[in-house]
Amino acid sequence: MSALLQVQVSAARLLTPLVREFTLVPCAGSLPGFSSGSHVQVHLPLGERTLRNAYSLTGDPADNRHYRIAVRLQEASRGGSRYLHQQVEVGDRLTLSPPANLFAPHSGAQLHILIAGGIGITPFMAYLEALQRRQANVELHYLYRPGLTDAYLDELQERLGSRLHRYAAGTPCDLQAILRDRPLGSHVYTCGPQRLLEAVRETASRLGWPASRVHWEAFSAAQPGQPFELELARSGRRLQVSAEQSLLEALESAGIAPPSLCRGGVCGQCMTRHLQGEIEHRDSFLSRAEQAEFLMPCVSRGCGPRVLLDL
Amino acid sequence: MSVQFSPLQTYREPFSFRNSPKAIRRFPFPFTEDSYLYSVNIEPANSKDPGSIYEHWFDIDEHYRSEMAERARVLDKDPRRYLVLAHMQEAAWDALEMLMHKLAADYPQWFELDCDGLHWHWRNKALEIDQRFTFGDATTLPCEPLEFITRQVQGDFALLDQRDGDLFMDAGMVTSPADWSLAFDAGMSFKQWHSPVPMAHQMGIFDRALKYLLNVPVGQPVRRLNWTLTINPRLDSSPETFHEWGADRGSVTAENAGRLVHLRVELQLMARLPRSNGLMFSIRTYLISLDELVSQPGWGCRLHRVLRDLPEPIADYKGMTRYRATLVQWLSRFDPDA
Amino acid sequence: MMDRPSAAPDRLYSLPVYREPMPREAARRHIVVMQSAALGAAFVEGLDQPLLLNAQGRDFPSRLTGLLTDATVGCHLYILGDEAFIWLVHGQACRAGLHDDEIDMTLSVPGSRRVYCVHCGLTQAASAADRFNCIGCQVQLGVRAHFSKRLGAYLGVCDDADRPYAGAGS
């Protein structure tokens, strides 16, 4: 991936104590257009290393004067969201990777059923702009903790009226009722915590929904692990991967990384061949057989002292 | 760089089409080796070689007016060459936006675009078009957006819908195909519409190409070259009119081969459509007669070797079976080893 | 384009795939549409509460429309008949919102198919013959191994450009 974008924070506001929304404008020229469901990778300089976190673009795709992202402060974070909440101010500059879309609305859908958990609402904010412009049928199911992870709730209530179904924490969300007896041509999209995604997928499958009608985006990211040494077979270079650093980030800091898109082990873009060393696979893309030969450096790591990669 | 247009020429009887010396030098001779083999020859569409066909995303050359007149003629006779499935109107506006911005930026002496919010003003001085319209509202244009803009740009266009991990040919303007029908192929997936291509499927060409194309990002198009042969400078070598021109393949002789046989090269550009997430496939066709081609050093020799050694299924698919022997014989005089 | 049918590759991706009918375990509802009552009887018996529709019954078109309108996600459609029948039903099912992977097709009656004449745009009924004259424009068409699901038809192109109308008027 090339052609990084330089942007400036033109506005920042807390939507809730846990969710901070940023408005980003280009430093020069104009921003590339984007489709609903797209995300950008925000480059976060944390002292010695640069993290890249992926955030959905929440704004109207028809308006590319600025990008909007909403960041949830993650408790068990490697520092990225904390940096964005506590260090970044209006006027600051950030580097972004250009938009990529792994979660686009399906053009054949006659009804789009959106199920959002907490910060998972963000890609759907852009969806609603595009789908309403197309006059598509939409219904939104929003699971949230009031006052904490209910970003955009009032705006959504006003826009959607009875098409918005609210589930404040404590209100049961009956996925079976949502997915049962839906008209032909329906598609379901879900975004939010892993357990919500699993529940939706499992319920859909049990009700006979084919996988082609079920779409999901996980906000997964690299988790820390034990440090290990990285050797690159083709150049002979050796790197140290620290506990807090992903394998991909270590490669990027050395200038030799494969391209990436999702940063969360689901899209397959950064797939790399490993030659030696014990690997802890944390991705959701490769089959077991494939993992014997390949790994996803964005989330997976070595769990022994050393890993040799075919790079 | 300023482009000058030739006087109007025809791509059908009496076939007055000719290349100027500049156009001949500029022609994208596609062979880098003495033999031809399928490959995933996709590369980033970076601007290179100012003045060449690679300088801009959409190349306007001396044949612009002739080609646009030819497109209008084809559509008059056969409106089926333009098709937009219902869900592709957003992609069509994406395409109009991309083409207008690019043309106005790259050829400012011919095209101007002023945007005031959704109120756009487009001027095409080459075709004397002055159009004010509301972006997104087709009632403010004389015809649908994709038809409106592609009647003003050289080359065929297919708009692909990206879904289900695949690409679907769901819209297009195709008046200069090398033997394929939009009306028939519309709605097909990537491998389905490539069904007729021999040998390439087993080589995994289309699997790799599809993966590459699914990940083309906004603002970073890719391109490749494709080639075939055509008898006479006939742009509209479509299946729709095959019963009218197919017999031309039997008319090639040693005496007329240089005049009749044309190398046909397609510069294909694949660009992400930003808002719809679709993919635009631009197919820009360049024609050159053999007489013109052999005026360039080395081209006659290389073409001789490529056509002499081309595997038969590929030669059949490219439609040259009837005249291949005559053609190879005619080219042999340019090959010192022949 | 071929002056004669080309050496076919191993798999032709556009050609339709037909199979012996087999129940899709993951589906919640099975809908079977057959061209005549006799087709698929054994298969139907093995299904749990299937919805059945027989084209020889009364009001088939409106009953098919009603069935598709009332159907919900989680159903699987099985079509049994000749090629022309299969693709007419397939087209209607897709317009109602079904995907390819929710539809199985069994070619119970070989011989009758549809061909799209690329010259005049007419989709017409045809036999299994490789060559025939288009009823719209009289061009003698060769039927290609290239199929459009959207049209439910094979591609028909002028078979011999030296004699485009050979066989016409006979």
Key attributes of the depicted protein:
heterotrimer, A: 311 residues, alpha/beta, Elongation Factor Tu (Ef-tu), domain 3, Rossmann fold, Ubiquitin-like (UB roll), 3 domains, six-stranded antiparallel sheet, five-stranded parallel sheet, 7 helices, 18 strands, 18% helix, C: 170 residues, five-stranded mixed sheet, four-stranded parallel sheet, 3 helices, 9 strands, elongated, disordered N terminus
Question: Given the structure, what is the number of helices of chain A?
Answer: 7
Structural class of chain A: alpha/beta
Mean pLDDT of chain A: 92
Name the chain pair with the biggest interface and residue counts per chain.
B-C, 38 and 31 residues
Strand content of chain A: 25-35%
SS elements, strand count of chain C: 9
- Approximately what portion of the residues of chain C adopt beta-strand conformation? 25-35%
CATH architecture of the largest domain in chain A: 3-Layer(aba) Sandwich
Global outline of chain C? elongated
The helix content of chain C, as a percent range, equals 10-25%
Radius of gyration of chain C: 18 Å
Number of strands of chain A: 18
Please state the oligomeric state of the protein chains shown.
heterotrimer
Describe the structure.
The complex is a heterotrimer of chains A (311), B (338) and C (170). Chain A has seven helices and 18 strands. By secondary structure, chain A is α/β, with parallel strands linked by helices. In chain A, the strands form four sheets. Chain A has a six-stranded antiparallel sheet, sandwiched between helices. In chain A, a hairpin with a 5-residue loop joins strand 12 (228-232) and strand 13. Helices cover 29% and strands 21% of the residues of chain B. Chain B has one domain (21-334). In chain B, the strands form two sheets. Chain B has a seven-stranded antiparallel sheet. Chain B has 13 helices and ten strands. Chain C has helices at residues 41-45, 60-70, 83-95; strands at residues 29-34, 51-54, 75-82, 103-109, 113-117, 123-126, 131-133, 140-148, 153-158. In chain C, helix 3 (83-95) links the parallel strand 3 (75-82) and strand 4. The longest helix of chain C is centred in the middle third of the chain and has 13 residues, at 83-95. The radius of gyration of chain C is 18 Å and the shape is elongated. At the B-C interface, helix 5, helix 6, helix 8 and helix 12 of B face strand 8 and strand 9 of C.
